[in-house]
Structures are given as structure tokens and as C-alpha cells.
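Milestone M4 deliverable, item 7.
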Amino acid sequence: MRGRTESWFHGHRVRQGVLVCNPPGEGIDGCISPGFESAAINVPRTLWDQCRLLAGADHASFSQVRVHRLTPLTYATMERRLWTARDLLRRADTPEDTHFAARQAAAITVDAATLAWQLSAAPEASADSLRNRARLARRAEAWMREHLGEFLPISAACLALRVSRRELEYAFRSSFDTSPRSFLHSLRLNAIRRALQNNTGDRATVSEIALNHGVAHFGRFSAQYRALFGENPSETRRIVRLSLKSRQSYPQ
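Output delivered:
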């Protein structure tokens, strides 16, 4: 919510930077003052329950409306992502743009609902240890390698392994000194690099190879690939082909 004025939701006075968490199935009761803006995200019950798992919350439903004052950084990040997703959905005019916009909208929906659970419910008790974290990190790595070709966010791994985001984050920080998201990006980019080096024919384009490894946004992919390997994907393929021609011209 943003704006210089105040508004009311379920008897609570709210202002800019506030997250209102509505119990499932309950209508929104409020009054929005002129000049005040708000964004409402409706979450299906099945997704709502999944977000409870992602948050590591210990009970199944809210009993009342909760109003949370977000930190400036959290609010700014959520606001930027909300309006970006809205603009992407409005401007999408190609299948690739539509798919990317839908993924962004789905991601902000999951993150907002998970944040609502994290702020409103007590965390589950967890018997944590370095050994358990290492075991979870190995299970997550195996899951990621099996699903490299799918457009799946980190939340999908959490749901498949039935752990919260916090648990998975701790596991990867302890075992690999990086985040699950960064680890998945690295796995994906290295798999694409191997595919580019091994596929020296003209049958598959760089975009097709990237698509087959779960890449949805090609502009961002090229920048990430260049940052990791110091060259563009097309350069990797060109270097491999030149090396192959050289070996064919000068047999050992």
C-alpha cells in the first residue's frame, strides 16, 4: 500500500508500507481514501497451504486479520516487483514475453503469501544440525539436477523436499557457501556450457539449448553466462568449432 493519506481495513488504520493479511475465505472490509493506492493478491487455498510450508509456519490457518508494518527495504522491493509484474503483463505481446510476465506474477504471489505466513505465524520447531543441513543440501542438489530443463523456481524445490525456504537457505549456506538460487543458476549455466561444447553441429541453436535447460529470459541468461565464463554463449560455440576444424586440418 502506498500514498500519503491513511485508509482503513477491517477496523485497522493503515498507511504506506503496510501488509494486510486476510484470513482465507474472508471478504475484504475497508475504506480507501483518495490518493491512497493498494494492491490485492488473491491466493488459491492450495497455494496458500503450500506457502505455509515454504514459511515453515506451524499452524494451518489465520484466525484473524493481521496488519504488519514492513521494513523500508522489504516494502520497496515488494512495491517494485508488484508494479513491474503488472507492467509486464500489460505490455506482453509475444509468447516469450507472456510466459516471462506470468512467471514474474506467479513469483511475487508466492513470495507475498509466504511473507504473510512468516510475519503472522510462529515458525515450526526444527531439529537442526550440520549433518541434517548437509543431507538436505545433497538432496536438493540431486533434485535440481533432475529438473534443470524445467522452468521451476526455488519454491518448487522446497515443496518437493517439504522444507521451508529458511531451512533450504541455511542448508546451502552451510554446505556450499551460497544461496539455493545462485547454486541453481550455476548448475544450469554449466550444463548449458557443456551442451554448447558438445553440440558442434547446426541442429540446435543457442536459444534452443538454453530453452531446453530451463532458461526463460534470454537477455538475462546471456549476461549471467558472460559474467560466469567471460564470453558470450555464441563465442563458446564458435571457439569449439574453430578448435574442431583445427584438429581436422592438422590430424595427429
